[in-house]
Amino acid sequence: MNKLYKGALYIVPTPIGNLSDITYRALEVLKNVNMIAAENIRHTNILLQHFNIKNYIVSMNKENEKNKSDNLIEELKQGKIIALVSNAGTPIINDPGNILIKKCHFFNIQVIPLPGACAAITALSASGINKNRFCYEGFLPSKKKIRCDLLHSLKEETRTIIFYETKYRILESIQDIIEQIDQNRHIVIAREITKKWESIYGATATSILEWLKEDKYRYKGEMVVIIDGFKPLKTTFISKKILDTFFILRNSFSLKKAVMITSKIHDVSKNTLYQYAIKNKHDKII
């Protein structure tokens, strides 16, 4: 067994669905710490009973986190070893515990994170969408205006965007993505990851919405939504010569006609030139 350090807080990921996904090290820690701080005692007890682990569990949820953190800090100062767990996955990601960890750093108490399950990363790995750069937005806001404002701010985010959504709001959120980001943006919905009814489906935002509406069971359970990042228009193929022609024509013709004539003269894509013109509408006379 790995040695446990006295007076240390262990961050222990737990399975997000399939109990077999827990690590040997996580089981050792849960079995041998002095106490377990859990988001939900009943939920954690199911896990412990499955692996025949008996240990003392204290509740630490969003309602009591501040007070319980002070109590746990005192226990840690006295040399107690504590494991922090959430209902599922890696603690702190959308779960209580950050106050406790901040206090640990303030009092120079050792914090030891264990690797393990995380729905967002697990879903991303199977999405087929670029994984080199991504941003995690947690759960989208429940209020429509705030949600739409957030999505609009992400319209030109070049990184892959990951967030969680519930079955109650998924249809509204996808509709908001269509309106605020792009109806043709590629989206992947990973549902019930690691569980019996796991499904991963990707398509454009419009197609995803239609697909969901076809069968209500397609949006039952817990969902990770992954949005492909914005692809900036590559203007390297639009030379100065092409742009000079376009600007001259734009003096006498409408935007549409100037684009059409320029594309014929220089054999450049009308769509590429038009997108450039819209994106740079404040340049010169566009």
Model description:
With 286 residues, this protein is α/β, with parallel strands linked by helices. It has three domains: 9-117, Tetrapyrrole methylase, N-terminal domain (Cobalt-precorrin-4 Transmethylase, domain 1, 3-Layer(aba) Sandwich), CATH 3.40.1010; 120-227, Tetrapyrrole methylase, C-terminal domain (Methyltransferase, Cobalt-precorrin-4 Transmethylase, Domain 2, 2-Layer Sandwich); 240-279. Helix content is 39%, strand content 16%. The chain has eleven helices and ten strands. It has helices at residues 24-32, 41-50, 65-77, 98-106, 119-125, 144-153, 170-180, 205-214, 240-250, 255-266, 270-279; strands at residues 9-11, 35-38, 57-59, 82-85, 111-113, 134-139, 160-165, 186-191, 199-204, 223-227. The strands form two sheets. It has a five-stranded parallel beta sheet, with helices on both faces. Strands 6-7-10-8-9 form a five-stranded mixed beta sheet. Helix 7 packs antiparallel against helix 8 (205-214) and helix 9 (240-250) packs antiparallel against helix 10. The protein is elongated and about 80 Å long. The model has no long low-confidence stretch (mean pLDDT 92). Keywords: Cytoplasm, Methyltransferase, rRNA processing, S-adenosyl-L-methionine, Transferase. Catalyzes the 2'-O-methylation of the ribose of cytidine 1402 (C1402) in 16S rRNA. This is Ribosomal RNA small subunit methyltransferase I. It catalyses: cytidine(1402) in 16S rRNA + S-adenosyl-L-methionine = 2'-O-methylcytidine(1402) in 16S rRNA + S-adenosyl-L-homocysteine + H(+).
